[in-house]
DNA sequence: TAACACCCTGTTAT
DNA sequence: AATAACAGGGTGT
């Protein structure tokens, strides 16, 4: 296959602002591969993007196919017809966009540390964990695969999806790199049975049905793109307004989350992952079993017998973190999530340190969270029973009151 | 609202 | 060593 490989170029970035060795392995994207020692590669937007990082710079290189690709990339982006002349190469813009580099991460870490002792304790060993801005469609399917699953198997599954249905972009050391398949490709009737055979389990049906639904939504991926945060739009898209910030998130975020729930295999957690990592909604806080455990261990959420992760506790946890961390709560959440991953256990804070910290927090706050959870539960019930917007507004007020009570208690 | 099944795989417990 | 039990970034019924 004829290809054109760009030179390595560099972009000044500190490890405080971005650490690819952590960010690319913390379960946000399931497609990056080590192509050499300290080199990561992935097929994105019609090219293979390769990255290296040293303390001063992020080094990047792209490999473009010069023959036409079998099927178009998954988004109506500038990469649909990859430019092969250096002056038209948009790889730098892609890198900046993919890594959300306009956000000042160091500043955010300082802010989170100043309001949250637990964050302050754990974050230092996990600097540079940054929320990626991935393709919404790829994010959606990736996280449908993630349900009740391990990161390693999710990666295998996504890789198989690309291998069998995605366009071949090129090779590195004989290893093929495929871009992510389009909804239309995955909406073909034979896909479900094939994915089952490939070991996708019950997710084979979810993927097929979701592909059909998205493909039927109309013009390519406009529906998904329309759910993006307009202040942080998809690569190559236009901008707009995102709505006013509240502790349940901006209106655009809530709308996107709700619409995603209509898809098969998409519940609250997966919808939040797509909102955060694919649609640019920074306040989205996906609450999985892991985050729920963190909330119980470090933030005094109900440890009682019947304290499962219900719809009510889900919202209570997410709202609590939004109140604590602010508009980029999802980014902070990702730092603590990463700090708890087994893959990074060598960096964990010692148990003695953690225990000491937990005790400190407990002294300040005890009953408040339990109360918060109960209020949240009542509010959620209302939402389900009466779906009109007036009631939903009341729910928001109820949540906000709960939060205020909690903050008062914390100060007393 | 609370169970329970759902596909499969690597890890831990007998 | 072989096998059971269980959890792993949940969702649908």
From TrEMBL:
Belongs to the type-1 OGG1 family. It catalyses: 2'-deoxyribonucleotide-(2'-deoxyribose 5'-phosphate)-2'-deoxyribonucleotide-DNA = a 3'-end 2'-deoxyribonucleotide-(2,3-dehydro-2,3-deoxyribose 5'-phosphate)-DNA + a 5'-end 5'-phospho-2'-deoxyribonucleoside-DNA + H(+). PANTHER family: 8-OXOGUANINE DNA GLYCOSYLASE, N-GLYCOSYLASE_DNA LYASE. SMART domains: ENDO3c. It is found in: Nucleus. It holds the Pfam family OGG_N. One of its GO terms (biological process) is nucleotide-excision repair. GO terms for cellular component: nucleus. Its EC number is 4.2.99.18. It comes from the Eukaryota. Keywords: DNA damage, DNA repair, Glycosidase, Hydrolase, Lyase, Multifunctional enzyme, Nucleus. It comes from Sporormia fimetaria CBS 119925. Its main location: nucleus. GO terms for molecular function: 8-oxo-7,8-dihydroguanine DNA N-glycosylase activity; class I DNA-(apurinic or apyrimidinic site) endonuclease activity; damaged DNA binding. Residues 145-341 form the HhH-GPD domain. This is DNA-(apurinic or apyrimidinic site) lyase. Coiled coil: none annotated.
């Amino acid at each position: 296959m004829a290809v054109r490989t760009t030179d390595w170029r560099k972009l000044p970035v500190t490890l405080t602002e971005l650490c690819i060795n952590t960010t690319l392995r913390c379960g946000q994207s399931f497609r990056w591969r080590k192509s050499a020692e300290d080199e990561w590669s992935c097929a994105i937007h019609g090219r293979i993007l390769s990255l290296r990082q040293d303390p001063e710079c992020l080094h990047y290189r792209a490999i473009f196919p010069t023959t036409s690709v079998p099927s178009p990339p998954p988004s109506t982006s500038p990469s649909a017809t990859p430019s092969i002349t250096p002056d038209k190469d948009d790889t730098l813009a892609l890198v900046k966009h993919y890594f959300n580099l306009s956000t000042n991460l160091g500043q955010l870490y300082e802010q989170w540390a100043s309001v949250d002792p637990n964050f302050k304790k754990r974050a230092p060993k996990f600097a540079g964990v940054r929320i990626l801005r991935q393709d919404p469609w790829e994010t959606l399917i990736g996280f449908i695969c993630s349900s009740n699953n391990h990161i390693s198997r999710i990666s295998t599954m996504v890789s198989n999806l690309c291998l069998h249905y995605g366009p071949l972009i090129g090779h590195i050391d004989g290893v093929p790199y495929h871009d992510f398949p389009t909804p239309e490709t995955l909406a073909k009737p034979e896909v479900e049975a094939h994915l089952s055979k490939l070991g996708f389990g019950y997710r084979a049906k979810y993927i097929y049905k979701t592909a059909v639904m998205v493909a039927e939504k109309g013009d390519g991926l406009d529906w998904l793109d329309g759910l993006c945060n307009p202040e942080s739009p998809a690569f190559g898209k236009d901008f707009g307004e995102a709505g006013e910030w509240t502790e349940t998130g901006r209106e655009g975020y809530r709308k996107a989350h709700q619409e995603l729930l209509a898809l098969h295999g998409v519940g609250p957690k997966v919808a939040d992952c797509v909102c955060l990592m694919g649609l640019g909604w920074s306040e989205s806080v996906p609450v999985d079993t892991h985050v729920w455990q963190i909330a119980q261990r470090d933030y005094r959420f109900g440890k009682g017998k019947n304290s499962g992760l219900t719809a009510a506790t889900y919202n209570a946890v997410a709202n609590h973190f939004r109140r604590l961390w602010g508009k980029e709560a999802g980014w902070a959440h990702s730092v603590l999530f990463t700090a708890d991953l087994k893959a990074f256990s060598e960096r964990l804070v010692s148990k003695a340190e953690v225990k000491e910290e937990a005790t400190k927090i407990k002294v300040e706050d005890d009953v408040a969270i339990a109360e918060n959870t109960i209020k949240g539960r009542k509010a959620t019930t209302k939402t389900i029973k009466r779906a009109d917007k007036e009631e939903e507004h009341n729910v928001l007020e109820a949540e906000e009151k709960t939060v205020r009570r909690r903050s008062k208690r914390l100060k007393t």
